[in-house]
Amino acid sequence: MRQQLEEIKKNAEAVLKAANSLEDLDAARVKYLGKKGELTAVLKQMGGLSAEERPVIGQVANEVREFIQNELDERVNELKSSLQEAKLLTETIDVTLPGEECEVGHRHPLSIVLDEVKEIFQGMGFDIISGPEVELDYYNFEALNIPKDHPARDTQDTFYITENILLRTQTSPCQIRAMEERKPPLRVISPGRVYRSDAVDATHSPLFHQIEGLVVDEGITMSDLKGTLDTLAKKLYGPETKTRFRPHHFPFTEPSCEVDVSCFKCGGKGCSMCKGEGWVEILGAGMVHPKVLKNGGIDPDKYSGFAFGLGLERLTMFRFGLDDMRMLYENDVRFLEQF
Ligand code: DAH
Known about the structure:
Blueprint: H1 2-18, H2 22-33, H3 38-44, H4 53-90, H5 109-123, E1 127-128, E2 134-136, H6 137-140, E3 165-167, H7 173-181, E4 186-195, E5 207-217, H8 222-237, E6 243-250, E7 253-262, E8 279-288, H9 290-295, E9 304-311, H10 312-320, H11 333-336
Parallel strand pairs: 1-4
Antiparallel strand pairs: 2-3, 4-5, 5-9, 6-7, 7-8, 8-9
């Protein structure tokens, strides 16, 4: 039996030496030390030994087991570290290789101008709010004093979800929502996407952006409107910019006006940007119609207000001297990287 054990030890030593993968070593562990392994098989026969022989053989068996276990551990460690070394060698980084260029994106011109406008109004104490793009006919038209048969609807055809639900044609419905949700004094702007069933050309798009403004308080007058929008124009286009308020008509304001700014390119002399006029129109505005205040749950005998609507694309095109609105939507990197 002692001989058997010596034999196992010798074989195991040779097998472990020859093994050159972790799988080989695991197979050797099962073969010699496993429950059904060779060493266990020998130990099972110990019952047949005499009382004197048993402890002697037992000790030899333990020594053999310890020997194999130690050899095994050593080989496993050896193999693991050489595998690790090989892995590190294949994964070395050549720090002298040229780096990969990482292209930096640009802010979209619409976002640049929108942020400027937001900052200007925030500086004047306005809150920034938003409203749904899928809107009820009531908020988009009816509550703004544009009943079903009103001709103003002809210029604002849009995409209908149902007869009473549509893609909003203007940000003006936010006026009603703001009045319903807040109490005067009220000072908000509401930027967002609007939709019209227009064909795409240099100045039209079925999706564009507006920024609505609304101020309601006691004693608000047209001079507050003029002062606010004059400040906007000077901050956006420079301190020498002049504003011109022309009478106009909107169903939801009375009186209403359109606001022009002196052309920032030629200073008012006339150029291609302002088509020789010296002025460019930037927005519509007016004193909130008493009916509209009432629809918003505000008493028109106590409160008055002014409202305005800016076209973000128009502002942006003037700001950067663009002559075709489509450039803003084409996502051409050669265009966008200029901002
Ligand atoms: N909603 C108008 C439009 O889309 C623009 C506008 C004009 C908004 C006058 C206003 C306003 O708030 O007072 O043409």
